[in-house]
Write a structure and sequence with these properties.
The complex is a heterodimer of chains A (147) and B (102).
Chain A (H helix, E strand, L loop, with lengths): L5 E8 L2 H9 L8 E4 L9 E4 L1 H4 L9 H7 L4 E4 L2 H16 L4 E6 L2 E5 L6 H16 L3 E8 L1
Parallel strand pairs in A: 2-4
Antiparallel strand pairs in A: 1-6, 1-7, 2-3, 5-6
Chain B lengths: L28 E10 L2 E9 L2 E4 L2 E10 L2 E9 L4 E7 L4 E8 L1
Antiparallel strand pairs in B: 1-2, 1-7, 2-3, 4-5, 5-6, 6-7
Classes of the chains: A alpha+beta (147), B mainly beta (102).
């Protein structure tokens, strides 16, 4: 049985779609925001929320009508997949540039095999700083080991 | 590392495009733009729309859209008063104003 541990860096973009929309329109920063799957404010489904909207109990999959009942001042943006796909691809290329094996976990989550990295903390800090500088969006980093 | 086989495009395969992308505010009008092209990047600096000059103070975001072989570079730009989405088509070498971002 192979008991060797593999160290994986998990990069999870926070409120990915909402974060991109807030970067596009700085007026939306710090506000409760939902991204709707279609451009029909009251008759669609929430596909992403900002942290400020989550604080009202609004989450993905909720009908927008229900979301507006919980927070009447909610900001609404219709989803535009090209922005999210492009940003996801750019993030993947950016991470692959570190020379480690990178895999998609979802459109906004990536796994990087950093087993050969002697200083994973510094690497994570560097990734954090460069993503913030380059993409201006939020994210979380988790380091974990797996057999 | 085990590959998930996930593709960021896959989740949108079932997306059904609506007219104007479902956006009634879509302008889709030709504009003239002064821009710098440097190191494979485009930096629009000002545009003329309806005979009015709009100076661009900052580019808040940029991304690409692909339709067949065509690539469109999209920019959300801040003029200090308003935010606009403008785009450059790499095939026709033309600029458009897509919408006013509200």
């Amino acid at each position: 049985m192979n008991h060797e541990l593999t160290m994986i860096l998990h990069i999870d973009m926070d409120a990915f779609f909402a974060s991109i929309e807030q970067a596009i329109n700085p007026k939306l920063k710090g506000k409760p925001l939902i991204v709707g799957s279609r451009n029909n404010k009251l008759y669609t489904v929430v596909c992403a929320t900002s942290y400020e909207a989550k604080a009202y109990g609004i989450d993905s999959g909720m009908p927008t009508k229900e979301a507006f009942k919980l927070c009447p001042n909610l900001e609404f943006v219709a989803a535009d997949q090209s922005k999210y796909i492009w940003t996801s691809e750019q993030l993947f290329e950016f991470l692959a540039g570190y020379g480690f094996e990178v895999a998609y976990a979802s459109i906004d989550e990536f796994r990087m095999d950093i087993n050969e990295e002697p200083d994973p903390i510094s690497l994570a800090q560097d990734i954090r700083a460069r993503i913030q500088e380059t993409f201006n969006i939020h994210y979380r980093l988790h380091r974990h080991s797996q057999k | 590392m085990k590959q998930s086989g996930f593709s960021p495009k896959a989740r949108w395969d079932r997306h059904i495009p609506e007219s104007n992308h479902g956006d009634p505010g879509l302008l889709n009008e030709k504009i003239q733009v002064l821009a710098f092209f440097s190191a494979s990047k485009i930096y629009p600096r000002m545009f003329i729309w309806n005979n009015k000059i709009y100076k661009i103070k900052s580019i808040t975001y940029n991304w690409q859209e692909h339709t067949g072989k065509e690539t469109t570079n999209c920019f959300s730009v801040n003029t200090g008063l308003d935010l606009y989405q403008i785009s450059f088509n790499n095939t026709s070498y033309s600029w458009k104003i897509d919408k006013i971002i509200e």
